[in-house]
Write a structure and sequence with these properties.
The complex is a heterodimer of chains A (439) and B (295). Chain A is of the alpha/beta class. Chain A is built from 20 helices and nine strands. Chain A is 49% helix and 13% strand. In chain A, helix 2 (36-52) links the parallel strand 1 (26-32) and strand 2. The chains are: A alpha/beta (439), B mainly alpha (295).
Chain lengths: 439, 295
């Protein structure tokens, strides 16, 4: 007991001593949702920034998964103690944009603080997503990923397939899957984030609309377009593969990823951010490749869409604190910091300069496959492929999951399910439009 | 009733002071949130509540126009009936057996009470792991038996999964009450019946079960409320409402729309609907089922 008290006293004393110089600093709260290796990355960024100057101190706090931290921020904002910076996942973007009184556009924060800021320096497919129709950048792209194709090279070799040549088209995927199956593989291919990879990225990749109004970027009156003949053809194709046991459904979100790492499933479409996990945990040789496409579709492959999260600045803070935020974002945008983060996490570099710096360092040559995601994104985008930003998107993703499951279970045809997604999704979009027009 | 001793307070304010803590707790934790839900159900606002708009009954109209919402009433009915009946039957069975155990009854009871200390989300994950199609130990066993098991795409499998998890979670609670109820039945009644030649099965149905009826009734109400309100974490962890919407019970949608999708108005409207249903069910139970109860 006695010892405990002494230890406590010493701890309190030293805390007081060390906290003293911090009094002069301006603290900036940063709520994020990064875990494990990515959580360490966030802490290191804050540490590095704090060491680089004396005026401001960034305090990163892990607040649970993306939806949990967003709920926490909503509650905190209502109670008047929101953080300065909040990391929000891409599906929450439209919600944040609509909450005009709760946020401050990043573009404004930067110009007010006199921080040099050129939105053009950012990769178009990344920055475009977080930019308002009037050209103002609303949030700061932080960890961006996109959809790529992973395959198990050892399984390919065992099935007599060329392990150095990933299937580039969906018919080739089906052929490879059939070979894997006849070689005794129980799960030739599975799909993570089915809505994101098979409907959203699929649309941009084939340069067809996911929704009207430039996929929602140009206005709130967007409506879904995913029951087009091409979409129906693709989902039908997957349904047939499911029937033959070539495609095995393993659940929603990123749940199926574990089945690739364990070797159960030989091919998978999922986030480029999955790279670190596979590299660390897979006990086989694996390859990364661009998403498969349909060769006969004009304009395919175009580019894929963004996932991941961005940093939003909350309203109602002191001017000095906004200066600190601008300085921190300036630090995060520097090519060196960007490039180091990209190499470390597998997330996309968000500025063109950072990409070039990484290329020059020879990183892509030493780590084959890491450039797949970047190459899919660093392209000239079209109005159909710039990105997808829709209101009530969390619910629309859930609807996509629900309806696609009916297809994989054989209860609905591809056409029926896609029509249902459009019908149910449009109702939500209408409601979102109405709710936000009133303001 | 006649033998009940009535206490009469001389002071006029003392009784109020004595019940004040209880009233405060109920007001803060029940009436206030319920009033908030009622208020929010007539509003639409952005996630951060910076712009609030009165929409009258529009949130409710949206619900009635949503076919999948109406379908989830049926899902909820099936789920609640299964959870309540299975939960009560199994725990009554266990309680009857535990009542007869003489040696080591403490250990036996402790094991049965344990699951109650497990959080619903943990229960959901636990069952999910055991029954996961590719890695679950139980699904491995099921496959060895030559049966198919795929809660990801088979609705019946998915429903069985969440019912099992929900029942398992509630068994301890029911068990405790049943056991206490059984132990309060005078042994002399049962012994007398035994001497008259009644077999255990008959003794149970004609003596123990009727005398247990107040407990059974109380547990019925509690279990229905549990199935309606307290099971979203299990659904969220085990099936996320899938496949399709086949396990999306009402309270899960309240949770999803409110906490994941930030549609507070729509979510509040749903919780008002849910509140009305549960109040109605409880009234029905007290009006009709309670008549069969012997106190």
């Amino acid at each position: 007991m006695h010892l405990n008290h002494r230890a406590l006293a010493i701890a309190a004393l030293s805390a007081a001593v060390f906290a003293l110089p911090a009094q002069a600093q301006t603290d900036i709260q940063w709520w994020h949702s990064m875990t494990a290796v990515n959580g360490e990355w966030v802490n290191d960024l804050a540490k590095e920034f704090n060491a680089s100057q004396k005026e401001y101190r960034i305090l990163p706090t892990y607040k649970g998964s993306y939806d949990e931290s967003m709920t926490a921020a909503v509650a905190a904002f209502r109670a008047g103690n929101a953080p300065h910076i909040l990391q929000v996942f891409e599906v929450g973007t439209a919600t944040m944009m609509a909450s005009k009184n709760a946020i401050v556009p990043v573009g404004k924060v930067m110009t007010d603080a006199g921080q040099s800021f050129d939105p053009k320096a950012y990769v178009p497919a990344v920055a475009g997503y977080y930019t308002a129709p009037n050209g103002q950048m609303l949030s700061f792209p932080f960890n961006s990923s996109t959809t790529v194709f992973y395959y198990n090279k050892d399984a390919f070799k065992a099935a007599g397939l060329d392990p150095e040549k990933a299937p580039a088209t969906w018919p080739e995927v089906a052929l490879a899957a059939a070979k894997l199956k006849s070689n005794g593989h129980k799960c030739p291919i599975s799909i993570s984030w089915q809505g994101w990879t098979q409907l959203e990225s699929f649309s941009a990749w084939h340069n067809v609309e996911f929704a009207s109004k430039q996929n929602g970027l140009a206005g709130m009156d967007a409506r879904l377009k995913i029951n087009s003949p091409l979409h129906v053809r693709h989902i039908e194709n997957l349904a047939n593969m499911a029937k033959q046991g070539l495609f095995v459904y393993k659940g929603r979100g990123n749940v199926p990823e574990a089945t690739f790492v364990s070797g159960e499933c030989a091919m998978m479409t999922t986030s480029s951010g999955f790279y670190g996990n596979v590299k660390k945990n897979a006990k086989f040789n694996f390859g990364l490749a661009p998403l498969p496409h349909y060769q006969d579709v004009p304009g395919a492959p175009q580019n894929t869409v963004i996932g991941g999260a961005s940093l939003w600045v909350m309203a109602g803070k002191k001017p000095d604190e906004y200066k600190g935020i601008a300085k921190f974002f300036g630090f995060l945008s520097s090519p060196e910091v960007q490039s180091a983060s990209h190499k470390r996490t597998g997330y996309l570099p968000i500025t063109t300069a950072a990409f070039q710096l990484t290329e020059k360092s020879g990183f892509y040559k030493q780590n084959p496959g890491t450039d797949v995601a970047v190459n899919q994104m660093i392209r000239k985008v079209t109005d159909k492929s710039r990105g997808i930003r829709l209101g009530n998107y969390v619910q629309i993703r859930a609807i996509e999951d629900e309806e696609l499951e009916q297809v994989w279970a054989g209860k609905k045809t591809a056409k029926e399910a896609l029509d249902a997604i459009v019908k149910r999704g449009d109702e939500l979009l209408e409601r979102f439009e109405k709710a936000n027009k009133a303001k | 009733m006649a033998a009940e001793k009535r206490v009469v307070f001389k002071s006029s304010w003392l009784p109020w002071v004595l019940i004040a803590p209880q009233v405060v707790v109920i007001a803060v934790f029940f009436f206030w949130p319920a009033a908030q839900a009622l208020l929010q159900s007539t509003q639409q606002s952005d996630a951060f509540g910076t712009s609030v708009e009165w929409v009258g009954l529009e949130n409710f109209r949206n619900l009635w126009n949503d076919e999948s919402y109406l379908a989830s009433f049926k899902t909820t009915a099936i789920f609640s009936v299964l959870v309540a009946t299975l939960g009560l039957t199994l725990s009554l069975l266990l309680a009857v057996f535990a009542d007869r155990v003489v040696r080591g009854s403490g250990v036996y009871r402790t094991f049965l009470i344990w699951p109650y200390a497990v959080a619903p989300a943990v229960a959901g994950v636990l069952w999910l792991f055991m029954f996961a199609p590719s890695i679950g130990i139980v699904s491995y066993g099921i496959r060895q038996l030559g049966l198919s098991w795929d809660p990801l795409l088979n609705s019946t499998n998915a429903m069985s999964l969440i019912v099992m998890a929900a029942v398992w979670k509630q068994i301890s609670y029911n068990f405790l009450f049943f056991l206490a109820g059984l132990q309060s039945i005078p042994k002399s009644l049962i012994e007398a019946a035994a001497m008259d030649g009644a077999r255990p099965w008959r003794r149970f149905w004609t003596i123990q079960f009727p005398l247990l009826s107040p407990t059974t009734f109380f547990l019925l109400v509690i279990n229905i409320v549990y199935a309606f309100f307290d099971t979203f974490a299990i659904v969220d962890a085990a099936t996320k409402g899938g496949p399709g919407k086949d396990t999306a019970i009402l309270v899960y949608k309240v949770y999803f729309d409110g906490f994941k999708a930030m549609d507070l108005g729509g979510s509040a409207a749903q919780s008002v609907v849910l509140m009305v249903i549960v109040v109605a069910l409880t009234v029905v139970q007290f009006r009709f089922v309670e008549k069969k109860v012997n106190y």
